[in-house]
């Protein structure tokens, strides 16, 4: 049975801009007798500090925008709006990974190319310590379908980040056809058990993981661990996906709350979305208004058949927007009725 050790490495001083990070880490590692096959898991935050990636607090939002490759979603919590975005190196992160915790000089940006930073540290630490090792740069993130956060690999060098088990068999002899193990993320999460968030330990040594250290083509950078493009099954949440299909631009999209919202709030948002200008056209000529707890009345601009078509199109946009609101948390049935401008009685 394999024995794995996860060792916290203390003695790393507070890192500042311009520091020789590899030298500081090598000095801290000396008492631990680093061996061939060890993996060094380093908090990306100390790399950001050494690179001087500090921004003024009042420039935080601008820094998030500048670090965004693609906006996935925005959510409101009390008065704070959090942007969940894809960063240039591939991962999807809250606030583009811009973080103020354990950052006495101000919010810190993530390195633009974490794999390049990992590769540089790998070269320098290999030379300084004289052993065959791997380097993983770690940061905290959440996962689709899971509550809470854990550390993932943002950068990797000298590590077999992916272990492809396809073509093998399980203990029962069944063929493995889809299993690819994300070893780099497992190493990052394991290291976080001893690094912690408040203990001031930015470095951990993971020892005893067979096959973790690799070289040449077997070394897989962390950018290969992010699903992007057509491989990204969760490119946007349900609300934003439907809003995109309805033609809303990122600037037009409302901001939903993180916490559960009342039905009336969600219905009102659906009306707001449906009434926004459509792609390739202006604002709908028909109007829509909430009339009662679960009823929306659409009123054509006039009596012509074109006005009727406009009202019908708006009603369908409303039903689609209401459907988007119902995916995550079902809404009671909401009636969408078209009412002629001069009619007092509703008609379906």
Topology:
Elements: E1 5-8, H1 21-29, E2 39-43, H2 44-50, H3 60-66, E3 70-77, E4 80-86, E5 92-94, H4 114-129, E6 134-142, E7 149-157, E8 162-164, E9 180-182, H5 183-195, E10 203-207, H6 238-245, E11 256-257, H7 263-275, E12 287-290, E13 295-299, H8 305-328, E14 335-338
Parallel strand pairs: 2-6, 3-11, 13-14
Antiparallel strand pairs: 1-10, 2-10, 3-4, 4-5, 6-7, 8-9, 12-13
Description:
Its EC number is 6.3.2.31. The chain has eight helices and 14 strands. By secondary structure, it is of the alpha+beta class. The protein folds into two domains: 227 residues, 2-Layer Sandwich (60s Ribosomal Protein L30, Chain: A), CATH 3.30.1330; 101 residues, no CATH class. The strands form four sheets. Strands 1-10-2-6-7 form a five-stranded mixed β-sheet, sandwiched between helices. The protein has a four-stranded mixed β-sheet with strand order 5-4-3-11, with no helix packed on it. Strands 12-13-14 form a three-stranded mixed β-sheet, with helices on one face. Strand 6 and strand 7 form a beta hairpin. Helix 1 packs across helix 4 and helix 7 packs across helix 8. It is elongated, with a radius of gyration of 26 Å. The C terminus is likely disordered.
Contiguous helical run count: 8
Across the major sheet, the strand order is 1-10-2-6-7
Name the CATH homologous superfamily of the largest domain.
CofE-like
Mean pLDDT across residues: 91
Which CATH-level-2 architecture of the largest domain? Answer: 2-Layer Sandwich
Please identify the structural class as seen in this structure: alpha+beta
The SSE order reads: EHEHHEEEHEEEEHEHEHEEHE
């Amino acid at each position: 049975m394999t024995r794995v050790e996860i060792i916290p490495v203390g003695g790393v001083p507070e890192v500042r801009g311009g520091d020789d990070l590899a030298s500081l880490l090598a000095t801290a590692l000396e008492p631990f007798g680093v061996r061939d096959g060890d993996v060094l898991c380093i908090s990306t935050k100390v790399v950001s500090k050494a690179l001087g990636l500090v921004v003024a607090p009042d420039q935080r939002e601008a820094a998030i925008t500048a670090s965004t490759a693609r906006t996935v979603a925005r959510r409101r919590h009390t008065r704070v709006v959090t942007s969940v975005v894809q960063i240039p190196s591939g991962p999807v992160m809250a606030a583009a990974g811009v973080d103020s915790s354990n950052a006495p000089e101000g919010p810190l940006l993530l390195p633009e190319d974490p794999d390049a930073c990992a590769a540089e540290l790998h070269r320098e630490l290999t030379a300084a310590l004289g052993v065959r090792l791997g380097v993983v740069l770690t940061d905290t993130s959440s996962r689709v379908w899971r509550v809470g956060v854990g550390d993932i690999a943002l950068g990797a060098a000298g590590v077999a980040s992916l272990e492809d088990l396809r073509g093998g068999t399980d203990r029962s002899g069944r063929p493995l056809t889809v299993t690819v193990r994300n070893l780099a993320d497992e190493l990052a999460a394991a290291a976080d058990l001893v690094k912690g968030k408040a203990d001031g330990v930015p470095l951990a040594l993971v020892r005893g993981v067979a096959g973790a250290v690799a070289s040449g083509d077997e070394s897989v950078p962390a950018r290969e661990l992010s699903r992007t493009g057509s491989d990204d099954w969760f490119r946007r949440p349900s609300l934003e996906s439907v809003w995109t299909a309805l033609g809303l631009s990122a600037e037009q999209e409302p901001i939903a709350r993180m916490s559960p919202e009342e039905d009336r709030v969600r219905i009102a948002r659906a009306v707001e979305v449906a009434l926004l200008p459509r792609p390739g056209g202006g604002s709908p000529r028909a109007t829509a208004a909430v009339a009662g707890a679960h009823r929306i009345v659409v009123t054509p601009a006039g009596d012509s058949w074109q006005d009727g078509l406009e009202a019908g199109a708006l009603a369908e946009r409303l039903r689609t927007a209401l459907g988007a609101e119902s995916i995550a948390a079902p809404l009671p049935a909401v009636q969408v009725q078209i009412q002629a401008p001069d009619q007092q009685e509703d008609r379906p």
